[in-house]
Specification:
Layout: E1 10-11, E2 18-19, E3 24-25, H1 45-57, E4 62-64, H2 73-84, E5 93-98, H3 106-118, E6 124-129, H4 138-150, E7 154-160, H5 164-175, E8 183-187, H6 200-207, E9 210-214, H7 225-228, H8 230-234, H9 238-265, H10 269-279, E10 285-287, H11 294-302, H12 310-320
Parallel strand pairs: 3-4, 4-5, 5-6, 6-7, 7-8, 8-9, 9-10
Antiparallel strand pairs: 1-2
């Protein structure tokens, strides 16, 4: 699928992959599968098809999913969205993850056929270890991942939620096989900046590893809708509402500043938050906001159409430093 937009592409860490600074996380596509049946509404497949098509036509070239998201439901419906739009394998990059809990590294190999089946017809470009919680050390996990690369089954290796030390260990293990770590997918946003102080970001920059930021909108808090629309907060499930309420007052000065900046650029608060995320640290960080509607996909792609000024980014940096 071709797009007339000229969109930036960034090298994904120590790999040959080039991704748009904004990708789409499709955890929401797991609605109707497993525990995610209680977390997300079941988006009709036709709407998922439209989300996928809109994202690709708007310049986004990759999607992130995982085994854990609805026991493969997210993978399967993402694959359906691509196939239903007749998207060619070479026109999209896919990232998925192995779930490590109560497993050993050998399980990566044993369950890989399921990942391939769920995404049939599409290459697994980036394969990630979801958390550092398996019974095996990262070195053993990377050995299996390196085997998959050498066998041509995947193109690059990533990790998720890895500490600075575990990131170094994973990268070193891959280097011994003539490879390198592509990415570390972690929680990062304007109001969750812990990677800047716990060594994860510094390590990524040193090793040339890309940071993939998940939850870059802080479960909707950085969209401004809960600050400016009380009804939106009242319509939120109670457990999530309690957490959001605690953050509303603390984050109000930041969101008000984002609102002013958004008006100057003719964009949304959401787009300001994502723009800061993908540009403040140069090319080190890319982001994967979720999308449960076509508008979400279109809005996410629009983040790559403008740049905050250095002064604007510094203003948001100062207002959000309390969240480091």
């Amino acid at each position: 699928m071709e797009t007339n937009k000229k969109v930036e592409r960034r090298k994904l860490g120590n790999s040959s992959l080039y991704v748009s600074p904004i990708g789409i996380g499709v955890m929401q596509f797991a609605g109707g599968g497993g525990m995610f049946n209680f977390m997300f509404s079941n988006i009709p497949q036709q709407e998922k098809d439209r989300i996928v098509k809109t994202a690709l036509e708007s310049g986004i070239n990759w999607f992130d999913t995982a085994e854990y998201y609805g026991r493969g439901q997210s993978e399967r419906t993402l694959r359906a969205g691509l196939a239903n739009n007749q998207i060619k394998d070479e026109d999209v990059l896919l990232a998925t993850k192995w779930w490590p809990a109560l497993r050993t590294a050998e399980n990566i190999r044993r369950t890989f056929n399921t990942r391939q089946k769920n995404l049939a017809g599409y290459t697994i470009d980036l394969f990630q270890v979801h958390w550092p919680i398996s019974f095996s050390p990262p070195e053993a996990e990377m050995e299996v991942m390196a085997d998959l690369v050498e066998q041509g089954k995947i193109r690059a290796v990533g990790v998720s939620n890895f500490s600075a030390d575990y990131t170094r260990r994973a990268h070193a293990a891959l280097e011994r096989r003539g490879l390198g770590l592509a990415s570390n997918q972690v929680h990062f946003s304007l109001i969750y900046r812990k990677i800047e102080t716990n060594g994860i970001l510094e390590t990524a920059k040193e090793l040339g590893v890309t940071i993939i930021a998940y939850s870059p909108l802080a479960a909707g808090l950085l969209t401004g809708k809960f600050h400016y629309d009380p009804q939106a907060l009242r319509n939120t499930p109670i457990a999530r509402r309690v957490n959001l309420t605690r953050q509303l007052h603390k984050s109000r000065p930041l969101v008000d500043a984002m609102d002013e900046i958004a008006k100057r650029h003719g964009v949304t608060i959401t787009q300001v938050a994502l723009n800061w995320t993908i540009y403040f640290h140069g090319e080190t960080i890319v982001a994967i906001p979720g999308a449960s509607s076509v508008q979400h996909a279109r809005e996410a792609a629009g983040v790559m159409d403008f740049r905050l000024t250095d002064e604007e980014m510094d203003t948001l940096d100062q207002l959000s430093r309390r969240f480091r």
